[in-house]
């Protein structure tokens, strides 16, 4: 391999590593991030791009806990129009989902009555079981209108308490591709290694910040994906803490 190719591959690896770090500011080059993801997946077939939910209306979702009199969900014909979204859709189809349509997204409507105190939980009717392996990265497309509302995601696993991962505050306008690292505790990793207790996606949680204005708000979600590490987890040196994906 010549020096130019080595430099390009190293750039992909370093960029993919930083792509898995949280928290981080918004990356305006969403198309570049999709291209990095494509290259990283192509370089190592141990990684699987898993479509958790396409929000095309086949799986029912609803509010589980809510502090507002208004709590509605529906599937709406509103999707991102960016080139990054189109390219990622193409990548998802190539990764084992050729019938992905991407015609609708998931619309949530509610009302903030008590900023800082109000919170919501949205769940699929049944938890979504993930394939065997280690989820290491998540991707979710979100439409917001500058709301000062924090979003987190919950995973569940037998013999373990639920785990929650922060996706950040939705104080942006328009569609945005949110990337977030999934760093499981050691005990959950061991449960996965046992091949008896896989991970399930359980819920989204929203929490209003003190700076959020009172009144109605709505959000759209689309194309929730995880990168799954399918490698065997018992190997020489596995006792060393894994820092792959940390910022450099």
Automatic annotation (TrEMBL):
This protein's UniProt keywords: Bacterial flagellum, Periplasm
Q: Indicate where this protein resides in the cell.
A: Periplasmic flagellum
UniProt entry tagged with the keyword Ribonucleoprotein: no
Gene Ontology CC: outer membrane-bounded periplasmic space; periplasmic flagellum
Nucleotidyltransferase is among the record's keywords: no
Give the Gene3D superfamilies listed for this entry: Galactose-binding lectin (2.60.120.430)
- The name of this protein is Flagellar assembly protein FlaA
